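Task card 7
Instruction: Convert sequence to structure tokens.
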Amino acid sequence: MTFRIVQLFVSCAIFPALAGCWSASPNAVVVYTALDSEFSEPIFADFSRESGLRVLPKFDVESTKTVGLTEALIAERARPRCDVFWNNEILHTLRLEKLGLLAEYTPAIAKTYPAEFRSARGNWCGFAARARVLLVNTELVAAPQRPASIRDLVDPQWQGRVAIAKPLFGTTATQAACLFAAWGNERAEKFFRELKANAQILSGNKQVAQAVAAGQVAFGLTDTDDAIVEVERGSPVAIVYPDQEPGSLGTLFIPNTISILKDCPNPEAARKLVDFVLSPAVEEQLARGPSAQIPLGSESQLVPRIETPRTVRAMQIDFDEALDKWPVAAQFLRDEFATGQ
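Output:
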């Protein structure tokens, strides 16, 4: 018997709601979460202390967690096991909404979040975002030469000296879909072809941030949670929130999203957890924590270490349109970036 199988049996024995052993319980709520356990579990613990409800989380592996959890929810649609889906991005949440798998629930606190970050149908709410930023090595790039736009990633003067994560998964893929929606197919395809020719393509956003910090590249496109790690380590780096000039795109903010599954086993407990997670206290906790999640709610306090859509120009994006663009964008990106992988 393999270690993985032993783990499965132990999990089912100790926590009946885990590893395929879910059941309805008035004293528990089952959460599928793509946010790293080190950030989400303290919040679940606080909720349990306050509510008396057990939180039974299901995580997935780092490389496929958003996709893997979404596919699990789709596979379980006839008999939902999950009550609450806490996603660390938005496009796959919109997929579930489009498939009719999400319940309608709009807590009063949701109205403190900008309309563009919540479902018009009351199926989900976005909160605690990450921004897509340029991280610059300050020893390699003098202040006057620092990039100001994602377009600088395709400037030939930086050929081989910039980096992005492979745009097939996660926030890099979400940003690609948003660019296809904002620019149209032709312009977006041109940008990504130029990017492929000009940049080092790395396995993830963390690797981009580390490469910048190590001086392996001059700058790269990454997320604020990975960038802030290098800033606070004292690495020779600076964060640039791109495209701030009038008429430019603005910086893309990608929220966490929280939603309740339609016909879930524990709907009352699910609503209590959603109310708790959307509270200003939780947004502030996530903002002050190691991942520096960005507060979106108007009642949440600003945190000086990070910018928000209230302090910098944010990209205005119709996420539903981005989802509609994703099939075309995904096929193009697979053809361009998956070769030889």
